[in-house]
Amino acid sequence: MAEKRAVEPRLAARILEPGPLVLVTSLYRAQHNVMTAGWLLPLGFDPPRIGVAIHPGRLTHEFISRSEAFALNVPTIDLLNAVHRCGIESGRDGDKFLTAGLTPTDAAEVEAPLVEECVAHIECGLVERLSLADHDLFVGEVLAVSALDELFSDRWLIDADSPLLHHIAADQYAGLGKTYTARLGEEEE
Questions:
Q1: What is the Rg, in whole angstroms, of the alpha carbon atoms belonging to the chain?
Q2: What does the domain layout of the chain look like in residue ranges?
Q3: Could you tell me which residue ranges the Flavin reductase like domain spans (predicted)?
Q4: Global pTM value
Q5: Which of 51, 129, 148, 177 is the most buried (most CB within 10 A)?
Q6: Domain 18-175 class?
């Protein structure tokens, strides 16, 4: 195996990426907002909980803290430019739904809007906010989930043209291209 080099500790998150990206939507006092996020983690099955890390300087942080609800919307590669825009612009400067060309639509359980163009949605009620470092971890209890049948059954249906979007770094993104199946006890080919 080739020799490995030391990497700066601040790049540990990039080692764990590329993770799936989401568009986090929130609503406070009739103002909606959408923000790109890649720091996500499942936290439990029963009750179903998910965490998302958000910097305290973000408008989304303020809106979720005040409204105690949010939605995670799973975009596809077709939304690459909109996803990038939602990650680098601030909702304090204007309506990111409008500037990114995204359509807010009603959610089933939370007041935060969903992104109509996304292929899956997870609606969450805020359970806890933990200040752990320079980002806060928002823990949400999953209240409703919806997904496009052609892309999700009990798991993502990945093929060579999988449209799911993953963040690499800065303005670099990737899609998943192939799945692999482990077969224990069989001879390797």
A1: 18
A2: 18-175
A3: 14-159
A4: 0.90
A5: 51
A6: mainly beta
